[in-house]
Amino acid sequence: MNDPNNNISTIDQFEIDDDTSSFAPVALTGAINTAPHVQQQQQQATFKNTNAPGIPNTPAPWYQRLASCFKISSLQHHFSVDTIDVQNRIVGAILHANKPNYFREEILTTQDGKRPDLYGPVWITMTFVFLLAVTSNTSKYLHTDSVEDFEYDIGHLTRAFSILLFYTFCLPSLLYVMMQCINVPITLVEMISIYGYSLVPFLPITIMCMVPSVMLEWMFLMIATVMSLLLVMRNLVGPVMRSAAAYGGPVSMCIVGSHFIFLLVVKMVFYRHHFHGKKGGDSGGGGDSDGGGGYDADDGIDADDVMR
Q: How many structural domains is the chain composed of?
């Protein structure tokens, strides 16, 4: 006779199909894993682990990546720097401007996990805006013969903000698009950070431009432009030459040309008041005793009038 206990254990190990004459062995774990609620939990876990290491992620659409640039959560870690980090980068932008790739690889990217930041470029740009507005009006005051004729130009503040905002953020963005077209491995934050810290030499130079001498102003601005250009060229041309050497010349010309255009804009917009000083009369006549306050050559009596 068969033991009833044996029959019960035997039945527990088999599953009866629709056909009662056949038996199919069923694994206990398999039956549990195929339960509907377990399958749903596994699918949810798989969906949550799509960002786990080793699992390829589906790239987000371009419009989502563009929208993420304006989110505070995506920009927050670019501003998480210490005062000592910003100080070292400001000093390094001057002392190590002529070392190839040193500023980008050794100062911006440190061993303790520090990355290129946006705090320094924003702070330097805003400081440069106020220095340009103040020093340009102060220089105009020092070159004015009569204090009563001096008027503070508040428009220098808005013009400085627009020009420096374009130079620090828009110009690197345009160069970044160019770099992506030729497959240069550099990020947008690195570009903005390099261009932002390249403005450091201009901060003391703007104070020196208050000296009442046109030649000294040109010389000071040229020195700042060359130092800024060295920092940008030494840290951006290297990746271009390694990845797309054929485009090294055009990229270098764009960088050099944009720097000297920036030099001319700063000189002519903010320190051009020396070339149109006070004239003797409204029509350029030389009979007024107050004439000769400016630097224009058409003040005073014309040579043809003397011959007559």
A: 2
**What is the mean pLDDT of the segment spanning 243-248?**
85
CB atoms within 10 A of CB 4: 8
* pLDDT tens digits along 72-105: 666 667 777 888 889 999 999 999 988 998 998 8
Interstrand relation of 14-16 and 23-25 (parallel, antiparallel or unpaired): antiparallel
Task: Check if the beta carbon of residue 255 is closer than 8 Å to that of residue 232.
Answer: yes
266 and 232 in contact (C-beta within 8 Å)?
no
Q: Which two tokens stand for residue 52?
A: 């786990």
**Mean pLDDT of all residues in 228-233:** 94
Residue 114, domain member (yes or no): yes
Q: What is the pTM of this model?
A: 0.67
Question: Does residue 59 lie in a domain region?
Answer: no
The whole-angstrom separation of Cα 136 and Cα 269 is 9
Place of tokens 């786990």: 52
Phi/psi zone of residue 54: left (φ > 0), alpha (ψ -120 to 50 degrees), beta?
left
Residue 106: which domain range? 81-274
Place of tokens 């390094």: 92
Helix axes 119-142, 83-95, angle to 10 degrees: 60
